[in-house]
Amino acid sequence: MQRMGNVIGLQDGAIAEYKRLHAAVWPGVLAKIADCNIKNYSIYLKEPENLLFAYFEYHGTDFAADSAKMAEDATTQEWWAVCMPLQKPLDTRKEGEWWAGMEEVFHID
After folding, report:
1. DSSP symbols for 39-50
2. Any idea what the CATH number is for the domain that residue 91 is in?
3. I want to staple 54 with a disulfide (CB 3.0 to 4.6 A). Which of 6, 63, 101, 103 is the partner?
4. Count: domains in the chain
């Protein structure tokens, strides 16, 4: 299992809509997340900076392949089309990232 953290900004005025959407995530999106070996997924909001922090645990063996499988899913694409305009990617993210990956610097069970 690999713990993963990601961060992204949220557009001004988008907080209420983002919370509304995530209060009732589409069942097909949730199913695809599970199908791609992702568990224990949480998203946190930090105001007033409007930063979203996502944490999840990857239980598969090929994250790139599972990410590609998720990206090919039609329902996930529709969900992203709704959510992505609300998000504001960080200027410092790596090439090809939407949510910026983070380095884990501490963990204890």
Report:
1. EEEEEEEETTTT
2. 3.30.70.100
3. 6
4. 1
